[in-house]
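help with this:

***
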Amino acid sequence: MALVLADRVNETTTTTGSGTVTLLGAVSGYRTFSAVGDGNQTYYVIAHQSLDEWEVGIGTYTSSTVSLSRDTVLSSTAGGALVNFSGGTKRVFVDYPAEKAVYEDVDNNVSVAGNVTAGNGIFVNATTMTTSFTLNTGFNGITVGPFTIAGGASLTISSGQRHVIL
Protein backbone atom coordinates (compact mmCIF):
# COMPACT_ATOMS: atom_id res chain seq x y z
CA MET A 1 0.00 0.00 0.00
CA ALA A 2 1.38 3.38 -1.02
CA LEU A 3 0.27 6.93 -0.41
CA VAL A 4 -0.85 8.24 -3.80
CA LEU A 5 -1.82 11.75 -4.83
CA ALA A 6 -3.74 12.10 -8.08
CA ASP A 7 -4.93 15.21 -9.87
CA ARG A 8 -8.57 16.04 -10.58
CA VAL A 9 -10.13 13.20 -8.59
CA ASN A 10 -13.62 14.24 -7.45
CA GLU A 11 -16.63 11.98 -6.85
CA THR A 12 -19.93 12.12 -5.02
CA THR A 13 -21.41 10.00 -2.24
CA THR A 14 -24.70 9.86 -0.37
CA THR A 15 -23.28 7.68 2.41
CA THR A 16 -24.38 8.70 5.90
CA GLY A 17 -22.70 8.07 9.22
CA SER A 18 -19.03 7.82 10.14
CA GLY A 19 -17.90 4.73 8.23
CA THR A 20 -16.49 3.89 4.83
CA VAL A 21 -18.05 5.90 1.99
CA THR A 22 -19.38 4.35 -1.20
CA LEU A 23 -18.30 6.39 -4.21
CA LEU A 24 -20.93 7.10 -6.87
CA GLY A 25 -18.83 8.25 -9.81
CA ALA A 26 -16.84 11.23 -10.96
CA VAL A 27 -18.20 14.75 -10.97
CA SER A 28 -18.40 15.97 -14.58
CA GLY A 29 -14.94 16.91 -15.83
CA TYR A 30 -13.10 14.97 -13.09
CA ARG A 31 -11.66 11.48 -12.59
CA THR A 32 -12.69 8.67 -10.25
CA PHE A 33 -10.70 7.38 -7.27
CA SER A 34 -9.54 4.50 -9.46
CA ALA A 35 -6.72 6.93 -10.38
CA VAL A 36 -5.39 6.37 -6.83
CA GLY A 37 -5.25 2.60 -7.36
CA ASP A 38 -6.77 -0.29 -5.48
CA GLY A 39 -5.53 -0.64 -1.91
CA ASN A 40 -3.61 2.63 -1.94
CA GLN A 41 -4.02 5.43 0.56
CA THR A 42 -4.63 9.05 -0.33
CA TYR A 43 -5.43 12.35 1.31
CA TYR A 44 -9.14 13.10 0.96
CA VAL A 45 -11.80 15.70 1.68
CA ILE A 46 -15.46 14.88 2.18
CA ALA A 47 -17.68 17.97 2.06
CA HIS A 48 -21.45 17.96 2.45
CA GLN A 49 -23.00 20.07 -0.31
CA SER A 50 -25.77 21.70 1.74
CA LEU A 51 -24.67 21.42 5.40
CA ASP A 52 -21.59 22.57 7.30
CA GLU A 53 -20.07 19.09 7.54
CA TRP A 54 -16.57 18.36 6.23
CA GLU A 55 -13.62 16.12 6.95
CA VAL A 56 -9.99 16.00 5.78
CA GLY A 57 -8.06 12.80 6.26
CA ILE A 58 -6.17 9.79 4.97
CA GLY A 59 -8.21 7.00 3.45
CA THR A 60 -7.80 3.77 1.50
CA TYR A 61 -9.47 3.21 -1.87
CA THR A 62 -10.96 -0.25 -2.53
CA SER A 63 -11.91 -0.95 -6.15
CA SER A 64 -14.04 -4.07 -5.52
CA THR A 65 -16.50 -2.06 -3.41
CA VAL A 66 -15.79 1.32 -5.07
CA SER A 67 -15.29 2.81 -1.64
CA LEU A 68 -12.98 4.94 0.46
CA SER A 69 -12.26 4.04 4.08
CA ARG A 70 -11.66 6.92 6.46
CA ASP A 71 -8.49 5.72 8.22
CA THR A 72 -7.12 8.89 9.85
CA VAL A 73 -8.88 12.21 10.36
CA LEU A 74 -6.60 15.26 10.13
CA SER A 75 -9.28 17.93 10.65
CA SER A 76 -13.05 18.15 10.58
CA THR A 77 -16.16 19.97 11.71
CA ALA A 78 -16.32 17.35 14.47
CA GLY A 79 -13.25 18.76 16.19
CA GLY A 80 -10.81 16.49 14.37
CA ALA A 81 -12.89 13.33 14.79
CA LEU A 82 -14.84 11.32 12.23
CA VAL A 83 -17.86 13.27 11.05
CA ASN A 84 -21.22 11.53 11.38
CA PHE A 85 -22.44 12.70 7.98
CA SER A 86 -26.11 13.56 7.50
CA GLY A 87 -28.17 12.58 4.48
CA GLY A 88 -27.58 14.40 1.22
CA THR A 89 -24.90 14.62 -1.41
CA LYS A 90 -21.25 14.98 -0.44
CA ARG A 91 -18.23 15.63 -2.64
CA VAL A 92 -15.25 13.34 -2.03
CA PHE A 93 -11.97 14.45 -3.56
CA VAL A 94 -8.19 14.06 -3.35
CA ASP A 95 -6.48 16.95 -1.58
CA TYR A 96 -3.06 17.99 -0.28
CA PRO A 97 -3.86 18.94 3.34
CA ALA A 98 -2.19 21.98 4.87
CA GLU A 99 -1.14 19.83 7.85
CA LYS A 100 0.89 17.58 5.53
CA ALA A 101 2.22 20.27 3.17
CA VAL A 102 5.95 20.84 2.83
CA TYR A 103 6.72 24.38 1.72
CA GLU A 104 9.28 27.16 1.85
CA ASP A 105 8.41 29.84 4.42
CA VAL A 106 8.89 33.60 4.02
CA ASP A 107 12.48 33.27 5.29
CA ASN A 108 13.26 30.62 2.62
CA ASN A 109 13.37 27.79 5.17
CA VAL A 110 11.71 24.40 4.84
CA SER A 111 10.76 22.70 8.10
CA VAL A 112 9.58 19.12 8.43
CA ALA A 113 8.20 17.71 11.67
CA GLY A 114 9.07 14.10 10.84
CA ASN A 115 12.10 12.41 9.35
CA VAL A 116 13.36 13.33 5.90
CA THR A 117 14.59 10.59 3.60
CA ALA A 118 16.58 11.77 0.62
CA GLY A 119 16.55 9.34 -2.28
CA ASN A 120 19.54 11.12 -3.79
CA GLY A 121 21.47 11.03 -0.49
CA ILE A 122 21.54 14.82 -0.02
CA PHE A 123 20.03 16.55 2.98
CA VAL A 124 20.85 19.42 5.32
CA ASN A 125 21.19 19.13 9.07
CA ALA A 126 21.22 21.45 12.06
CA THR A 127 24.47 21.78 14.01
CA THR A 128 22.75 20.62 17.21
CA MET A 129 20.41 17.65 17.40
CA THR A 130 17.76 18.51 20.01
CA THR A 131 15.42 15.50 19.75
CA SER A 132 16.23 11.81 19.83
CA PHE A 133 16.51 10.00 16.53
CA THR A 134 16.90 6.37 15.46
CA LEU A 135 18.70 5.51 12.23
CA ASN A 136 16.65 2.49 11.19
CA THR A 137 17.79 -0.67 9.43
CA GLY A 138 18.21 -0.04 5.71
CA PHE A 139 19.32 3.56 6.16
CA ASN A 140 22.69 5.22 6.66
CA GLY A 141 23.29 8.77 7.79
CA ILE A 142 25.75 11.54 7.11
CA THR A 143 26.12 14.76 9.06
CA VAL A 144 28.35 17.69 8.25
CA GLY A 145 29.94 19.02 11.45
CA PRO A 146 30.50 20.54 13.78
CA PHE A 147 27.67 18.51 15.26
CA THR A 148 26.53 18.09 18.86
CA ILE A 149 23.76 16.18 20.54
CA ALA A 150 21.87 18.25 23.12
CA GLY A 151 21.33 16.98 26.64
CA GLY A 152 18.39 14.60 26.85
CA ALA A 153 18.61 13.72 23.15
CA SER A 154 20.17 10.57 21.74
CA LEU A 155 21.17 9.12 18.39
CA THR A 156 20.55 5.38 18.02
CA ILE A 157 22.12 3.58 15.06
CA SER A 158 20.64 0.20 14.16
CA SER A 159 23.00 -2.75 13.84
CA GLY A 160 24.77 -2.85 10.49
CA GLN A 161 24.04 0.79 9.66
CA ARG A 162 26.48 3.72 9.54
CA HIS A 163 26.40 7.36 10.53
CA VAL A 164 29.35 9.44 9.36
CA ILE A 165 30.19 12.94 10.60
CA LEU A 166 32.33 14.96 8.21
User: Anything to note?
Assistant: The chain has a mean pLDDT of 91. The longest strand covers residues 67-76. The two ends are 37 Å apart (CA to CA). The chain has two domains: 10-100, 109-166.
